[in-house]
Amino acid sequence: MRIINYYGKSGRVTLDNFNQEVKIYFDKIKELVRESKAQNAEIILLGDFNLHYEKYLDDKNNNRKMKKEHKLFEWIEDEQNFYDPFYIMFDNLSQHSLNTFYPFNTNQNPSRIDYIWVTENLFSETQECKIVNTTTINTDHRMLVYSIWSEDLIGNIANIKRKEGFKEVYKYDKMDGEQWELFQNDLNKYISNSEILKFNFNDKNNINHIWDKIKKGLVQASKNCIPIEKIKLTKSQVNPMKISNAYKVMKFLINFRRSIKDSRKRNHVIRNWITYRKKLLEIGREKSDYCWNKIPKDDKSVKEIFEEIKNLYQIYLILYNHDLLQFKEEKIKLAIDQRCEDLLENQKRMINSVMEREIKSIVLDRVLIKENNEDKLITDEEKIKDI
Fold first, then answer.
1. Are residues 207 and 111 in the same domain?
2. What is the SS3 assignment for 72?
3. Which end of the chain is less packed: N or C, by CB atoms within 10 Å?
4. Do residues 182 and 54 both lie within one domain?
5. Domain-embedded: residue 46
């Protein structure tokens, strides 16, 4: 993930200093975004832009000539397909509710000049958008709070440590008796020097500290004694919780909310309101008494629908988090049981687990051989093993 923080030049941007200063910053933003996308990174572009998105949008919708400084918005939104979650998801339709800058000089009007733009995958994982007043620091800006709830976007620590799309694999099959003896001697030396055996293994308060010591010794001995090979990484696995009903409903509500927020897409919703209403009633069954009788034709009805979407979203977010917690607890229990078993029965797999190494295997269920100058397909498992 790449986070790009930008502070825009304040004050009126003239043509001269735009070409000399602002354009340099804009070009740098574009360079960083392109570089990040080339690395398949998700991007958060945020900061005090000192630009007014609503003015840009007004000029664009009315086919007026666009100011040069506003072309950055056009590039971010149209060319790079970034999303402004606050504009799309914010509950209150009034643009004043999106204001982030409240000048100390009360003669000046509040405005919206602070933004968070995110790539499509991040937007689809939006959990919450808030604009809050800060009390710990003296500032004329309000704080944007944006949170996502899918851990898949970050990945585990092992993935973060990998470099250039490769990982290290320990080649246990290349080890012979002498090398395993060296491994054992190296591990024994570490245990002796670290005084692990002097710890009280029955003290629950020490268990994490002891395990960290053991893990460090296994890693050190493995690196010293076991042959290592670098292999190219494959795509990470998808979180199985994404097939849950709660997750699917939340994604639907996000997309539905976005559709009725956009006046162009709202017409499609209105034309297909019977289908949407049926889906929404199904989602809200036993969770809401709202009848979805109002078609989102005006700001008043849209605001009312937004409020109900928010209520349903929070309900399904609780359900999703409950399911996710249960899933994690089951996975942790299985992992603990497996590690305890491997400690006695399968030390190789235990080391792989400690090292957080991804294990891959190839299932060979058919082999094509040439026999008597004829091609022959072997599918029998036992015969394949004999080949």
1. no
2. helix
3. C
4. no
5. yes
Tokens, residue 234: 């494959």
pLDDT at 60: 85
Measure the CA–CA gap between 232 and 346, rounded to whole angstroms.
26
User: How far apart, in whole angstroms, are the C-alpha atoms of residue 165 and residue 160?
Assistant: 10
Q: Are 196 and 210 in contact (CB under 8 A)?
A: yes
Number of Cβ within a 10 Å radius of residue 171: 10
Query: How confident is the model at residue 156, as a pLDDT?
Result: 43
Of 383, 380, 248, 267, nearest to 316 (Cα)? 248
Q: Are 139 and 54 members of one domain?
A: yes
Domain hosting residue 282, numbered range: 241-326
- Give pLDDT < 70 ranges for the chain: 10-19, 89-96, 149-166, 201-208, 232-241, 358-360
Q: What is the CA 43 to chain-centroid distance, rounded?
A: 10
End-to-end Cα spacing for the chain: 46
**pLDDT value at residue 277:** 93
Quick one: pLDDT at residue 339?
78
Instruction: Name the pairing type of β-strands 126-132 and 143-148.
Output: antiparallel
Within the chain, where are the H helices?
Answer: 15-17, 23-38, 53-61, 71-74, 85-89, 120-124, 157-161, 177-194, 207-225, 245-261, 263-271, 273-284, 299-345, 347-354, 381-386
